[in-house]
Amino acid sequence: MTLPDPSAAARLLIVDDEPDLCALYEMTLRREGYAVDTAGSVTAAWSRLQAARYDLLITDMRLPDGLGLDLLQRLQRDGRQEKTMVITAYGSPQNAVEVLRAGAYDYLTKPVDLKDLRRIVRGALTGVPPASAPSSTAGAATTPATSPSVTAAAPALRSQPRPAAPAPSTAAARPATAPVQPGGDALDSQGLPLQDDWLGPRDDPPELRHMVGDSTSMRQVRARMAKVARSMAPVLIHGESGTGKELVARGIHQLSDRRAGPFIAVNCGAIPENLLEAEFFGYRKGAFTGAQQDRGGFFQAARDGTLFLDEIGELPLSMQSKLLRAIQERKVRPLGDTQETWVDVRIVSATHRTLGQEVIEGRFRQDLYYRLNVIDIIVPPLRERRDDIPLLARALLTRIAGETGSNGEDMPTLSPGAIAALQAHSFEGNVRELENCLQRALALRSGAVITEFDLGLDLPDSEPASPPLSPQPPPPAASAPVSAPAPVARSPDDALPVDLPTDLQAYLDDIERQVLRRALQVYGMNRTAAGQHLGLSLRQMRYRMSRLGLDADSVLAQDRPPQEWRNGWWTPARAIPSPNFGPRPAGGQIDLAVIHSISLPPGEYGGPYIAQLFTNQLNPDAHPYFGPLRNLQVSAHFVIRRDGQALQFVSVNDRAWHAGASHWQGRDNCNDHSIGIEMEGLEGELFEPVQYEVLVRLLLAINRQWPLESLAGHEHIAPGRKLDPGPGFDWHGLHQALGWEVRRFASLAPARAPLAGA
User: Which domain of life is it from (predicted)?
Assistant: First the structure.
């Protein structure tokens, strides 16, 4: 069968206020055969969208009359089916989260690689749209009849629902006289709803039928799975061990456009640390001893499919930075290779840890957390959905009995006492513990019915009920008045108990404020996740936060981690003490941060030479460029690598030797009153988005401890000596991200007005 070309009838709208870029994108995509329209503002774009339908909208984030995000939100509000992509000049995890949550298929950072643009546009157009909502009359989920490779050129095919599946043969075996529950479903002999194979409700898509349970929380999980399967956005699944996080991930994969591709599940905590990079990214022949042939890694194995990273919180920090780059760039470099290769993989991760708290405590990278936690799904523990236990137990018993070869006549059943005992048990191990319990009961049962005594659970000590030895007094007549308890006599001088509030509303508000603040801190200011944990909707969270005066600044300022700094050492950075430092002058005050660029040797990144230079361990004969550096003693406080790793060589309390001959605001020798920050990169070269993210985090941390008056480059404190960090450094983007006054930035003219949104 020949499939239609995705470019044959695809119509695109490009929105960008820079005419040159707009023309470049238009020319590139027209060459691919697409029909392309353009607009230069939100207003012009919306006029075109009202006049015509498009297959894909590509919009810049910042436009003269608003944000590209406004267009996405309008399309979503109006129920429009156009897929969307966003292009931004300054990528950050926060932007990615905001854009993908608004329904974008993907987003790119400027400067845009045209090969990536063509590849992602084609991917957006060749994806099968999400299934339509289940029919309320047929009771069967409708899903596209086409394969994942059917493209946007076949709108008629896309709208055709799959015919409802015929009823399973087991349905014919149900007794015609089966009792019916109030909701209309037939009941079995144990009073449980009759469902096909004891799986999920019959009105769910077949791909979700393995998610057993009809409780409200499980219905919410299945509904969220169906929604998030539509896009490429990374998903982070939270849940205790044994709750079924991998089942959720598999369900998302089966519902997505990638269901024809592989699903690769990886337990991040089960791989030795020294093998992580080879297992994830693969290696080339000869990369290390024993590498006798090329071998792909998990990313290559999951190409065009889904990579499930279970227990992502167990990854060491060194591997987290490499994983961040692979997710951000969608490229991996196998060990022993000099070239990166493109990988088209959707990332779904899971953890039993509270990653927001792990970020605060410095055990998980904040930038990686934001990359992974674009959309979150919280899988409830079994003790919070006890009503699902009978259904789960029946489904598990059916499967276990089938694995042991039992036929229908030998199928065990649970007694009412056994069901009650299961529902009363806490199940700290969740569904996994329930399955083990049933396996044990099936092996040790003495009859066809499993009783509570076969389960091996700790039953509460209780005596069998017996009739009372003497008649109990009758209850008081309904008409008899019940007297209130007599008040306790108090003298006029008696004070109220100290724990009794005098202002109940203020007291309750304070408790609620503490609970909300704690939940927001645990979930890293994710209001949706914090609200779900507390049983509140996002709208309720917004209302309560507004009423109680809670915002990001007040939450983060309260109970700020005391270990952010230890004797001038920033705890998120890797400490590599340098001998090249000295005391600051008596009474000296830190008020300047100086930003440099460094690459050693020029143009080579990721090697050990910078650290060797700053610790006087550099071999001057290792490279021709190193000869003039012989006996050079130099250091900076911080280095931010191109993969986002932060290194610290000198305590901020001490004076690092980074500025040399310098002058700033009437004072010589900026080493005395400054903090030196090196960005790994060449003068005039563009730096990585992750470097700016770490730089912003570092500057905010410094400013909290040592309020800064100025941010300058080496080129500002030593003009004429070096163009460092050079024109490739994004001072305007840094200004936007920090939100500080323009006067604090040496590179921005004092008369310049603050940028929009700063």
Answer: Bacteria
End-to-end CA, the chain: 54
Q: What is the pLDDT of residue 323?
A: 92
Cα(758)–Cα(749) distance, integer angstroms: 16
Integer Cα distance of 80 and 78 in angstroms:
6
Distance of CA 673 to the CA centre of its chain: 39
Determine the pLDDT at residue 252: 92
User: What is the Cβ-side half-sphere exposure of residue 657, based on CA atoms within 13 angstroms?
Assistant: 13
Q: Which of 253, 211, 389, 234 is nearest to 312 (CA)?
A: 234
Ranges in the chain, pLDDT < 50: 1-4, 7, 128-202, 461-498, 561, 749, 751-758
Place of tokens 């513990």: 433
Query: CA-CA distance, 183 to 195, in Å (whole number)?
Result: 13
Residue positions counted in the chain = 758
DSSP character at residue 373: T
pTM, two decimals, is: 0.44
Instruction: Please report which helix (H) or strand (E) contains residue 694, including its range.
Output: helix 689-705
The confidence score (pLDDT) of residue 26 equals: 87
Angle between helices 389-403 and 430-444 (to 10 degrees): 50
Give residue 306's pLDDT.
93
Q: Which two tokens stand for residue 569?
A: 């050492």
Structure tokens at 586: 């008596």
DSSP for 123-144, please give it. Answer: HHHHSPPPPPPPPTTT-S---B
Distance, in Å, from the CA atom of 686 to the CA atom of 340, rounded to the nearest integer, reads 19
pLDDT at residue 137, as a whole number? 29
- C-alpha span between 694 and 689 (Å, rounded): 9
Q: How far apart are CA 452 and CA 432, in angstroms?
A: 19
